[in-house]
Design a protein that fits this description.
Jelly Rolls; elongated; Immunoglobulin-like; 7-stranded antiparallel sheet; 8-stranded mixed sheet; single chain; alpha+beta; 30 strands; 722 residues
């Protein structure tokens, strides 16, 4: 009988695991659109955005992409590839796309432009071996360029580009980032460009104004791709307004022996027109570089000039105090707005509502937002992706130079959040100092909670409040479009929770009553091949009690996962909760069954390891059911579970379970001792798990130290009954 029950229990766990894997559906991301006013008339470009094929590994991608090519089979018919749109909000492991190039690319240098990279991306062309690797980028939302010779293309047939993503070091180093499930994603444009040997680097252009000398200065980075012998070069720049040339600068350049060299163009502008929210005036900057061998590259982009400062805690722009009134948007809201192609419309509505600053919290926005803000006169508050990080894991600010370079082109960028929730330490102070030097000229802040020990001597500290951020400079509030329902703490994605929990409690009471009135069978009955009917009935109720106890624990573990209102998580918690949304889309009963039967299998493993320490080496399930007689108090845990619906904290049932386990531990030990067994052997599996967790905690002790020092003091564990 026990063997049959064991097979049934293990089979239920396997079936539940298979059911979850079948029912699990990845949340589909939304396609993201962006408009960029920059023109590059002398570059051949191919937009690689649109449909890609998504795979779980590079090997799988190579296998099915090649099979589709060789056998002329649509890869979708193989039922192995999933549709993926890039750019989108969808994370992925590996993506592949086929494309063709013509012969005119053969005498150019190729470069792959990746915008909005969030994570670490490895790029392979026509294979997945090391020789096929084009390069790797580790991004936090910026723009990244990989150069490679056109000889890497296959001009006779289609080429295949492979992208492999993973978490970047910033995501890994956040508190418990090593444990958090998160995929890389590309939220900006992806394109191939064929360029001349020498090009102007768009991502490194910065414009400033010297009011004393009446000069507009444009810092430009020149890139030489394969050789340095094609100089000298001439860099020409012109500032225009209303299609009329306002100022021009011509700068001869000779090689400095490096493949990258900086240049500065100075334009004499006696009466400069400054940019401001009230008057968002923009010049057009035209740049081109040539050499005597016919090489040519050209860029045209809008630029603005303004002078920032602070006085008595207030922001100043062009010498005038600015009283900040703005709104904060989250990454999910940014995705929705871009998917609907409403970036400019959103900013216009924001401004018409009396707001003149938009704060992107928890992420770095697509550059199309900055161009739109430049055009419409909306100030931008950006954020460095440093937050909830132990001081020993705080990154070198140099990794954010790409983000600073993007911001330097845009007059709308007014302020930065340089960190969130970092402690008062030497490493934190050094980071704040270096970051301040890197983005000098902007207003800089760090965010913290009321009980956090922070150093505000270098960077002004702002407390994170439920309604937003505020200070002498002004106030930011969280944006809400009014379409989302307010989720109350008592709301649950498990809609019938109250009824189901009460019914489960009734079942626990019933099972406890059946066990109480059943015959009191002894240890020796485990070895009786022909037990009496009353004993068999007692066996049956004990088996059901085991299932009920683990089912109670499974429901207690699963309930918080379904009750957490993911859509109302504040944007300053910059973690990806996609996996939790996917869990909440599963049937609650299925998740509960999976957890419950996993705990049953774990319990069987625990008892099975200890069975040899009991007389006559009893069967695993029989010994487990015999021990289950001492868990009649599980009814009290069921009562505690019911009380969580009426205001008791979510941790109350598990705390009750632990307390009762400790109280009745002597009775369980005495029962094992009377049967002649060694109860201590039951500690083998729990001790193994405990030491595994302990080693993991010690390995990541910085995260737990941060949790104790910075997080727990700010959590309110109080509750109100009813």
């Amino acid at each position: 009988m026990f063997k049959r029950f064991t097979v049934i229990l293990v089979s239920m766990f396997i079936i539940a695991a298979l059911a979850v894997s079948i029912c699990w559906e990845n949340i589909q991301g939304v396609e993201l659109y962006s408009d960029n006013p920059v023109t590059k008339p002398y570059r051949i470009a191919q937009d690689l955005g649109g449909k890609w094929n998504s795979y779980s590994s590079l090997r799988q991608a190579l296998t099915y992409e090649n099979e589709a090519m060789d056998n002329m089979i649509d890869v979708l018919d193989l039922n192995q590839a999933k549709d993926l749109i890039i750019p989108s909000s969808q994370g992925f492991d590996v993506a592949a796309k086929k494309f063709s190039v013509t012969g005119k690319w053969s005498y150019k240098t190729a470069q792959l432009v990746l915008e909005g990279v969030n994570g670490k991306v490895s790029v392979f062309l026509n294979g997945i071996d090391d020789v096929n690797l084009i390069g790797e980028v580790e991004g936090n939302g910026g723009v990244y360029i990989l150069n490679f010779p056109a000889s890497r293309f296959d001009f006779s047939k289609e080429n295949t580009l492979y992208l492999k993503t993973e978490k970047n070091s910033i995501q890994q180093n956040r508190i418990f980032g090593w444990l958090w499930p998160e995929q890389g994603k590309i939220t900006g444009q992806i394109r191939l460009e064929a360029v001349s040997e020498t090009t102007i680097d768009l991502s490194s252009i910065a414009v400033s104004y010297d009011s004393a000398k009446k000069q507009v200065k444009a810092r430009v980075k020149i890139k030489h791709h394969d050789m340095l012998e094609q100089g000298p070069w001439v860099l020409n720049g012109a500032l225009t307004t209303n299609q009329q040339k306002l100022a021009e600068c011509v700068l001869p350049l000779s090689t400095n022996g490096k493949f990258e060299q900086d240049a500065e163009l100075i334009f004499q502008v006696p009466t400069a027109h400054s940019w401001s929210p009230e008057d968002p005036f923009l010049y057009e900057l035209n740049l081109n570089i040539t050499n005597n061998r016919g090489g040519y590259d050209s860029l045209q982009l809008p630029v603005g000039i303004r002078q920032l400062g602070t006085a008595n805690g207030k922001w100043t722009m062009n010498g005038t105090a600015l009283d900040v009134r703005g709104q904060i948007i989250s990454q999910e809201q940014e995705y929705t707005i871009r998917n609907q192609r409403q970036t400019e419309a959103f900013l216009k509505n924001l401004k018409s509502g009396g707001y003149h600053v938009i704060c992107f919290m928890g992420f770095f926005p697509d550059e199309s937002w900055l161009y739109a803000a430049d055009k419409l006169g909306v100030g931008v508050w950006l954020e460095m992706p440093v937050g909830f990080t132990a001081s020993s894991k705080i990154p070198n600010p140099a990794v954010f130079e790409d983000l600073a370079a993007v911001a330097a082109k845009h007059p709308s960028v007014l302020a930065w959040t340089v960190a969130k929730g970092i402690d008062d330490s030497a490493a934190s102070s050094e980071y704040l100092q270096k970051t301040g030097d890197m983005i000098s000229g902007f207003s800089q802040y760090q965010l913290s909670f009321p009980k956090d020990p922070v150093d505000s001597s270098i960077t002004e500290n702002i407390l994170i409040l439920p309604e937003g951020l505020q200070g002498e400079w002004g106030k930011l509030t969280y944006y809400s479009d009014g379409s989302a329902n307010v989720v109350q703490p008592s709301d649950s994605k498990w809609k019938t929770e109250k009824v189901a929990v009460i019914l489960w409690l009734i079942c626990l009471v019933f099972l406890s009553a059946q066990n109480f009135f059943s015959i009191k069978w002894k240890y020796q009955e485990l070895f009786n091949d022909l037990p009496k009917r009353a004993v068999r009935r007692a066996f049956f109720w004990c088996c059901l009690s085991l299932v009920a106890r683990m089912g109670t624990l499974g429901a207690i573990v699963a309930s918080p996962l379904f009750n957490l209102p993911v859509d109302t998580i504040p944007p300053w918690i910059s973690y990806d909760f996609t996996w939790l949304k996917e869990v909440q889309d599963l049937p609650f009963a299925l998740v509960c069954i999976l957890i419950s039967f996993f705990l049953i299998v774990l319990r069987l493993l625990q008892v099975g390891v200890a069975a040899s320490a009991f007389p006559r080496n009893p069967g695993t399930l029989g010994l487990t059911c015999w021990m289950e007689r001492k868990y009649g108090w599980i009814v009290l845990v069921g009562v505690a579970f019911v009380l969580t619906i009426y205001g008791m904290p979510y941790y109350f049932p598990i705390a009750t379970y632990i307390l009762l386990s400790v109280i009745f531990l002597p009775a369980r030990i005495r029962g094992s001792w009377k049967a002649g067994g060694k109860h201590s052997r039951l500690l083998i599996v729990p001790a193994t798990v405990f030491f595994g967790i302990l080693i993991t905690c010690l390995w990541h002790y910085q995260d737990f130290s941060y949790l104790i020092q910075m997080v727990l003091p700010n959590i309110d564990f109080s509750f109100q009954l009813f």
